[in-house]
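$ fold --in a.seq
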Amino acid sequence: MTDLEEPLRAVETGLAALGDALRRRDSAAIESHAAELHRALAQAVDRFGTAARHGAIPPALRQRLTVAGGQVAAQREALARAMAALDRAIDVLLPREAASIYSPHGLRERSAARKATQA
C-alpha cells in the first residue's frame, strides 16, 4: 500500500503547489511545480500500472487517483484559457507591422509578388 501512497501523495502535493502558483501568476513557480508534477505523475503511473498488473488497486487509492486526474485536466484547461487570453492581449498590444517572411501573411505576399514577376 505504501508503494502507491507515496507517489499519489506526491501528485496531490504537486497539484496543490501548481494550483497555488497559477493563482499567484508566478511564472517561475509555475514552471518549477509543473516539472515536479510531471515527474510525480510519471512515477505514479508507473507504480499504479505495476500494481494493476500484480493485483487490485485499493478502491480508496483508485478514487484519489481519479480525483487527481480530474484536477490535472482542470489545471490544463485553466492554463490553456490563460494562454489564449495572453495571446489575444499581445495581439492587441503589439499589432503586426509588416508581414514577416515566416508568417502566413508573408508567404501570401511572396507568392503574389512571384506571380507578378512571372507574368
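$ fold --in b.seq
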Amino acid sequence: MAEETLTPQKVQKFISQWKVYRDDVSDPCFNSLEQIEKMQNELLRRQISRLAKDSRFYRTIFHEYGTDPASIKTVADLEKLPLTHKSDYMANPESFRLTPKESRIENNLWEVNYTTGTTTGKPSPFYITVHDMYANYLAGLRMYKVCMLAPDGININLYPFGPLPHIGYTRMFTRTAAIGRPWVSPTIGMKYEEIPVHRSMEYALDLIESWNVKPLLLGGIPSFIRRLIIKAEQQRRNFSKVSDIHIGGEPFNQNVRDDLRARLAGMGAQNVRITNVYGFTEMQTSVAECCEYSGCHVSSPDQHYFEIVDEKGRRLPDGEVGFLAITHLNSRGTALARFINGDMMKITHQKCPFCGRNGIRFMPLEGNVYATRSSELIKVKGTLINPNVLKSEILGIKGIEEYQIIVDLKDPEDPLSGDELIIKIYTEGNREDLKRTVTEVCRNSVEMTPKVEYVPNISMIYDINKSLKSVRLIDRRPK
C-alpha cells in the first residue's frame, strides 16, 4: 500500500505534537533559500579560517594554489579551491585533523570512526570531537523530524556490530538518543571468538517479535533486512508491531519496498513506512526522505554544504548528474572542503512540495536509487554499462533471495578471450522460471545475455557474519 500524500500542513501538525521537535526552534530547513545561504556563508568564512590555521592539508593547498583564505567569503567562492579526492585523504588522514592551539573542552576527542583503507592498507580514521558529536545528535534529530518518526516506540538496530566503528551502527544510536526514543541491538555481525557477544539472525527475529511496543522501527542494510523478513515470513512470525523501516548502505528501489510491505502485511504489519537513508563516514550523519522518492533532505545545512561538480571541479546546475562534493561548515575534528566521496548524484534547491522544506535535496536517479558509485561504471564486451540499472531490475524479481553480478573472461586462462556476464542467484523457488526471467531482464537492461548460476547456500553470496555489506559486483578480469 502506498503512503498517503504528504503536505506541509501535515508536517507542521506532526512537529507541533512532539516537544522534542517543537523545541528545535533553530532548525534552518524551513527558512528561505536566501536565509540558508547567508547562514552558510557566515559559517564557511569561520571554517575556512580554521582550515588556514589548523589544517596541515589545506594550509598546503592555499599555499600551492596561491589562494588567499580570506577571499573565500561565500559558498560560490568554493570553486577557487581544488577538489579533495579520497586518495588525498587516504594518503595521510592525520593531515585533515584540525590541531587548534587553544585548549577547549569542545575540541576534546569523543570518538574515532573509520572509512576506506589508506595506502598502507590500514583503515582511515575520522576524528569526532565533543563539538562534532553534539552536532551529530542535532543532525540526527532533524533527520528523524524529516521522516516524521514519533519519539514513542522503539528502534531495533540491525546494522552489523563490526570490528571497526561505522556510522550505520553508531549513528542510529546517536540520532535515536537525540529524540529520546529507546533502542536495542541484537549485535549481529562478524564474530569475535575470544569475546562471544555476537548473536544470530534467529536471535534478532526473536527480539523483534518479543516487543509489545508499537511503533517499532527496523534499521539496517537492505540486503540483510530483506533476508530477515523473508526468514520471518517463512517461520510465520508475528511482526505486527513493525511500523517503520529505515534502510541505508546499499541502493534499493520501489520493487524492494513493495516486496517488503507485502511480506510484512502477511505477518500483521500495516501501512509500514519504508524510508531511504543516505549517509557516509565523511558526512558523519545521514539524510532521509520525507516521503517516498521526495528526495533526501539535507537537514544539516548548518553543518554541511553540498555541490554537484564535474571531474574538473566545475559546479553543475540542478538536475545534472555529477560527483557529490561535501564541505564541512562547522567541524572541529577531521575537516574537509570540496571532498569527493565517489558517488554520482543530482540535487535540487526547489522547495519540497510535500513537506515545505527549503535547501538541498538529493534526487532519485535511474531505477529509483539515489546514488551511483562512479567506480562501478564498467566496460563489458566493449560497452560501458551501469550495473546499478541491472541491480535495480534484479531487485524487482520475486523469488530471488540473494544475487551477485560477476564479470569474468569466458576462459580465465586466455587473457584474449571475450567477456562473460555471470549472475549468481540463491533461491528456494523454481530455478528454471527464474533463469528465464533473469535472462530477459538482463537483455532488456544492459543488452547482454548472462550466464545464470545458482548457489546452494545463501551465505556463499552474502554472509552477515563476515562482511558489513553484500558485494553485488565483482570484476574478475585481469587489470
